[in-house]
């Protein structure tokens, strides 16, 4: 796949307004500010494809990007933002669970977590849902440049051990949009999911 060719297609206010359940989708999820937009921009080699958020938690839209006519990247709204009312949050969590469970074209979920604060409750819930739905999961530990080499390997090991619980559907990588490490692994994993 040539991710450089990725284009914005549409924003959907909720799951029901997404494109027809055909072709292949790869979804990206993470807490607000985890570095999801930066990862999508790094993957697609574009500066402003996904909007890096100056106001975390504001965008509650699902952004749809087409890599090809068949393959879409789905930018799910960031979760865990405290200022979003609980009722809205609960509704969104339910919709997300439903999307992960019912979407036939969905092949895999990239869950982005700040390497300094990984596997928070909502992150675990997300990974758990995806695994229960039979999806492949790539836990992407972002902003890895913020840690020293040794802290980074320690964290990677710790998160990998924690994820053994989920079985072999879950892979874990360290990633930095800034320094571009982990980019090849992200790219090859998403590619693999698309052809499997
Ligand atoms: P999103 O809310 O998950 O889409 O997160 P963004 O991509 O907008 O990033 C949130 C903040 O983290 C921004 O200030 C980014 O500049 C910063 N950030 C994202 N990726 C990296 C990275 O790889 N390294 C560092 N040092 N900062 C990053």
From TrEMBL:
Keywords: Cell cycle, Cell division, GTP-binding, Magnesium, Metal-binding, Nucleotide-binding, Septation. SUPFAM superfamilies: P-loop containing nucleoside triphosphate hydrolases (SSF52540). Its cofactor is Mg(2+). The keyword Disulfide bond does not apply. Residues 22-196 form the EngB-type G domain. It comes from the Bacteria. This is Probable GTP-binding protein EngB. It comes from Neiella marina.
């Amino acid at each position: 796949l040539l991710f450089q060719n990725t284009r914005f297609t549409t924003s959907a206010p909720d799951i029901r307004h997404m494109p027809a359940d055909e072709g292949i989708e790869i979804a990206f999820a993470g807490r607000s500010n985890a570095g999801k937009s930066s990862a999508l921009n790094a993957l697609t080699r574009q500066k402003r494809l996904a909007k890096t958020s100056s106001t975390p938690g504001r965008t509650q839209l699902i952004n749809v990007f087409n890599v090809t006519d068949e393959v879409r990247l789905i930018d799910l709204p960031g979760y865990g933002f405290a200022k979003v009312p609980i009722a809205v949050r609960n509704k969104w969590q339910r919709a997300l669970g439903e999307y992960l469970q019912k979407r036939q074209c969905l092949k895999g979920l990239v869950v982005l977590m700040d390497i300094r604060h990984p596997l928070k409750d909502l992150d675990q819930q997300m990974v758990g849902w995806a695994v229960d739905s039979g999806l492949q999961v790539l836990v992407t530990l972002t902003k890895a440049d913020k840690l020293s080499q040794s802290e980074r390997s320690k964290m990677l090991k710790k998160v990998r051990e924690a994820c053994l619980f989920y079985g072999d559907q879950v892979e874990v990588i360290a990633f930095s949009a800034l320094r571009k490490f982990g980019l090849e692994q992200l790219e090859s994993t998403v590619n693999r999911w698309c052809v499997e």
